[in-house]
UniProtKB/TrEMBL annotation:
Belongs to the iron/ascorbate-dependent oxidoreductase family. GA2OX subfamily. This is gibberellin 2beta-dioxygenase. One of its GO terms (molecular function) is 2-oxoglutarate-dependent dioxygenase activity. GO terms for biological process: coumarin biosynthetic process; gibberellin metabolic process; response to molecule of fungal origin. Keywords: Dioxygenase, Iron, Metal-binding, Oxidoreductase, Vitamin C. It comes from the Eukaryota. The keyword Metal-binding applies. The lineage of its organism: Eukaryota, Viridiplantae, Streptophyta, Embryophyta, Tracheophyta. It catalyses: gibberellin A1 + 2-oxoglutarate + O2 = gibberellin A8 + succinate + CO2. Its EC number is 1.14.11.13. The keyword Ribonucleoprotein does not apply. InterPro entries: DIOX_N (IPR026992), IPNS-like_FE2OG_OXY (IPR044861), IPNS-like_sf (IPR027443), Iron_ascorbate_oxido_reductase (IPR050231), Oxoglu/Fe-dep_dioxygenase_dom (IPR005123).
Length: 333
């Protein structure tokens, strides 16, 4: 099989892990559901000026966050032209030679591929990504020859930040709390963007593009292409998410689940590799400062109080010691 020079050595790395597959349980008793559409929410309701429309829209956001942990939004205020420009720049970046992406310090040396901590195929990601802190996005020197990417990405990050804060404020208000009670802990210094590329994978349809996981932030906003591959856990079954290029996908992260005392759900999700087509997506992660204390919005609290820094450290330790994230169950009372 011919591997393009711009793709990372995923087949090489996966083959090495496959020789260890006897040590990795591949069993999976979770049944697969048909492809479904996520709840669709028109955010025009938030700015219509009609009190009933605004309440209806806010209720829909809160309901989807509680019942699905995922929803999609249209009329979200992010320019469709900006989304197209960002996708074009992202594709150009990933088509750069692998050696350039891996060794030239692009985007604050944020390039990763596969999974360096994987000990078996079940833990391997058939993907590559740039994982970029917002604080580094404006640094012109880190873009190398990709000069047109910087301006687009700065605008993109700003738009996503505004949308994420707006949605988070709605979710806070629906729990009868003031925006300021949680808004004060959001911190651009710890938020980040992740540019994802999932090369086509012809060796198997069972390989993960991104292994099953929950997000460790408050809120994630995803812009994906038309290829599909995203799946989430719903009613103990995997649901394939029908792609919609004109909508943005929003999902609840672990921190919002903890803060809401399990009212909002951080749901396990994954990406499956595609045997014929490559896939692109961009994720924005809304995070607090590392020393922000995550406590429940009401008592009795399901979880102990912890900081975002403590949570990230525990995740890193678990991945290092047992190969995967444990997450919120580490912090139950």
């Amino acid at each position: 099989m011919m591997i393009e020079s711009w793709n990372p050595p995923l087949l090489h790395d996966y083959s090495k892990l496959s020789r260890l597959q006897s040590n990795c349980d591949r069993s999976n008793d979770v049944l697969m559901m048909e492809e479904l559409e996520l709840p669709m929410i028109d955010l025009n309701g938030l700015k219509s000026g009609d009190e009933r429309e605004m309440v209806r829209c806010e209720n829909a956001i809160a309901k989807a966050s509680s019942e699905w942990g995922f929803f999609q939004v249209v009329n979200h205020g992010v320019s469709l032209d900006l989304l197209r420009k960002m996708r074009k720049e992202q594709m150009k970046l990933f088509k750069a030679p692998f050696e350039m992406k891996a060794t030239c310090g692009l985007l604050n040396n944020s390039y990763r591929w596969g999974n360096s901590t994987a000990t078996c195929p079940k833990q391997f990601n058939w993907s590559e990504a740039f994982h970029i802190p917002l604080t580094k996005i404006s640094e012109a020197a880190s873009y190398g020859e990709f000069t047109t990417l910087r301006e687009v990405m700065v605008e993109y990050a700003t738009s996503m930040q505004d949308l994420a804060k707006s949605l988070a404020s709605v979710l806070v208000r629906k729990l009868d709390h003031k925006d300021s009670e949680i808004g004060e802990i959001f911190n651009e210094n710890s938020c980040f963007l992740r540019l994802n590329h999932y090369p086509s994978c012809q060796i198997s349809q069972e390989i993960f593009g991104l292994v099953p996981h929950t997000d460790s932030d408050f809120l994630t906003i995803l812009h994906q292409d038309e290829v599909g591959g995203l799946q989430l856990m719903k009613d103990s079954k995997w649901v394939a998410v029908k792609p919609n290029q004109n909508a943005l996908i929003v999902n609840i992260g672990d921190l919002f689940q903890a803060w809401s005392n399990d009212v909002y759900k951080s749901v396990e999700h994954k990406v499956m590799a595609n045997g014929k087509k490559e896939r692109f997506s961009i994720a924005y992660f809304l995070c607090p400062s590392y020393d922000s204390i995550i406590g429940s919005c009401k008592e009795p609290s399901i979880y102990k109080k912890f900081t975002f820094g403590e949570y990230r450290y525990q995740i890193q330790q678990d991945v290092k010691l047992i190969g995967h994230k444990v997450g919120l169950s580490r912090f139950l009372q």
